[in-house]
Design goal:
The chain is an alpha+beta fold. It has 2 domains: about 90 residues; about 80 residues. The chain is built from 3 helices and 5 strands; from the N terminus they run H-H-H-E-E-E-E-E. It has a 5-stranded antiparallel sheet with strand order 3-2-1-4-5. A hairpin with a 5-residue loop joins strand 4 and strand 5. Helix 1 crosses helix 3. It is elongated and about 70 Å long.
Length: about 180
């Protein structure tokens, strides 16, 4: 294998690895995006169409039906795997809207306890985050919040969260959520 080919494959591998790491960091923002399943579904459809369009020139070079299908499947899967990442990043980072305070109805807050090794004997449990539920746009939404929300709120009380309208129209609860 030539040096040029090794370099090309090495750079492609580093690029894929960096995309996977970026995906891992973006999971927290998936939970903070209002109605993310719809955004993910639309991005998967867009990824399918992009894979078909990207694979077409390569499939035309093949004569057998099996090879053509393999090429289309490869490009479609590759585009669909990374399309939710692209949709979330573009919705959040390329947004031109200002961060605004949005009035929501408080529902509940639950402490979240996560530990890789478990608790030590005699150690008191400390929450690592909080699930905050609120009523917004006719539905109850839940986000993972690193800090506790003011506990003097009762169910149905109005409060404000910091949100930003994304590029694709999906609201994203900012960090910190409380203004």
């Amino acid at each position: 294998m030539e040096l040029r080919e090794k370099l090309r494959y090495g750079l492609f591998g580093a690029f894929l690895l960096s995309l996977i790491v970026l995906y891992a960091f973006e999971f927290d923002w998936f939970e903070r995006t209002i109605n993310f399943p719809v955004l993910a579904g639309r991005s998967l459809l867009a990824g399918l169409l992009a894979g078909l369009a990207w694979g077409r020139p390569y499939a035309r070079e093949q004569f057998g039906l099996t090879e053509k299908i393999q090429i289309y499947v490869y490009f479609c899967v590759m585009c669909m795997v990374f399309s939710p990442l692209a949709a979330s990043l573009s919705n959040r980072l390329i947004s031109f809207a200002e961060v605004r305070k949005v009035t929501v109805d408080y529902v509940s807050q639950e402490a979240r306890y996560v530990s890789r090794v478990g608790m030590l004997k005699g150690e008191a449990a400390k929450p690592t985050g909080y699930y905050l539920s609120f009523y917004y746009k006719q539905k109850i939404r839940t986000i993972d919040n690193p800090n506790p929300f003011p506990l003097d709120l009762d169910r149905g009380d109005e409060t404000q969260l910091r949100m930003q309208r994304g590029l694709w129209g999906f609201d994203v609860v900012q960090r910190p959520a409380v203004p």
